[in-house]
Model the fold of this input.
Amino acid sequence: MVTLWHGRFKGGPAEALQALNDSLPFDRRMFREDLAGSRAHLRMLTRVGLVSDDDGVAVLNALDVAEGELTDGTFLFVEGDEDIHTAIERRVTELAGDAGARLHTGRSRNDQVATDLRLWTIRELTELASLVLEFQNTLATRADEAGDAYLPGYTHLQQAQPVLLAHHLLAHGWALSRDVDRLLDARSRADVSPLGAGALAGSSLPLDPDGTASDLGFSNRFENSLDAVSDRDFVAETLFSLALLGVHLSRIGEELILWSTEEFGFINLDDRFSTGSSMLPQKKNPDIAELARGKAGRLIGHLTGLLTTLKGLPLAYNKDLQEDKEPLFDACDTVRLTLVALDGMVDSMGVNVDRMAEAADGPYVAAVDLAEYLVLGGMPFREAHAVVGALVREAMTGGDSLVDLVAADKRLGPAAAALLLPGVAVHRRTTPGGSGPEPVAIQKSRFRELLEAQRAQVGN
Ligand code: ARG
Done:
C-alpha cells in the first residue's frame, strides 16, 4: 500500500491505525468541494507558472473523470485512500501521471480540508436557512388562517390570559427568525478561504491565495496561516446555531404533544404525520413532535463534543480536528429531517377552535381586566389587585360566580362584569406587540416583511 508519505517510511501502516485514522467513510460526502478546491488550486498553479498549461489541462481532465466516477458511483476506492483528499489525488495521478503529481504543489491537506469543510458548511447553512424560512412561512399561513381563534396563554403551564392563536404561532416564528439570523451570521464567518496556508506557514512558492479565494467564491482569504488551518470556529458556530434551532423545534414539539392530548384536545394530527400503536388500536401518536424534542439532546451533544475537542488544542493542525466532520454532518442532517417533518405536521394539523376557546373562556383568565378597570377609575394597581383577588377567592371557595360577585360589587358593577364574558378579554390587548387583533395584524405584516428580507439575504 502506498501512502502519501511513503518516501519517509519503511513499511505500510498497521491495520489498527488505518481503522482509526481513516475518515473516508464520512468525508467522501465532501467530494464536490474537494474537486472545486483542487480545480481552483490547479488554475492558480498554472496562472503563476508552477504548472504548465498542458499539465493543467491534463489535471483538469482527470478531475472531470474523477467527478464523473464519484457522481455515478463507479469511483474505485483502494486501500490507502485514507480520506477523500487522498483518494481524489491518487485517482488524478493515475489518470494524468506526472501532471497529476503536481496538483498538491504548495498545498497541504490541512488547508485543503479546511477549504472543503468551509465550502460545504456555507452551502449547507444556506439550504438550512431556506428550510427554516419555509417553516416560518407555514407558521405565518397558519396564523392568517387562525383568524380570531384564541386559546389560553400560559405561565407556569397554568392558564394566565387568553391570546390569539395567531399570536402564539408567530411567537415561535420570531424565535425561528433569530435562528435564520444566526445561520447567516455563521455563514459569513465561514466565508474565508484558508487555501494557500499550506501545512501551517504558507509557502516559499509564489502562490496566490487571493486568486484561489475569489475563484472559489469566498469573500475573503485568511490573514494568518496558522489560524487558517486550525480555526474551526465556523463549525462550532454552526453547531451552536443548530443546537439553539433544535431547542426551538423541541419547544414547538413539546406544545404540539400537549395540544394533541385528549386532555387539551386543541389539535388533531393528520394521519400522514402521526403514528399508530402496535398494540393499542385507538392510539395516534405525535412521534414527529417527540423526535423534534428528542433530537435537541443530540444537537446539544454535538456542540459540547466539538467544543471539548477544540479546547486543549495547540496551534496549528492536530488530527483531533478530524472529529469536526461527523458532528457537523449529523447536526445538519438531523435539523434538515426535523424541520421538514415538523413543517408538514404543523401545515396539516387540524385546529379545534371551539375547544381552545372553551378552555380560554374560564372566568378567571380575565381577572386582570377587572383590576385594570379599577385602575382606570383611579385606584392604585396594588389595591385593585387585592380587591379582585378577594373576589376570585370568594368565587373559588364556593361563593357566587365571579361574574355575579363583580356585577354586585359597587366598585365594579355590570360594566366590569361584561369584561368577563367569553371572547371579550382577548380583544382588549391593544398595546404594540400585544396579543389582541390590532397589534397582531400589525405583527403579521411585519413578520412577512422580515421573511421577505431574510429570504433575500439567504440568496440561495
Ligand atoms: N482527514 C483529515 C481531516 O479530516 C485531513 C487532514 C489531514 N492532515 C494531516 N496533517 N494528516 O482532518
Remarks:
- The mean pLDDT is 96.
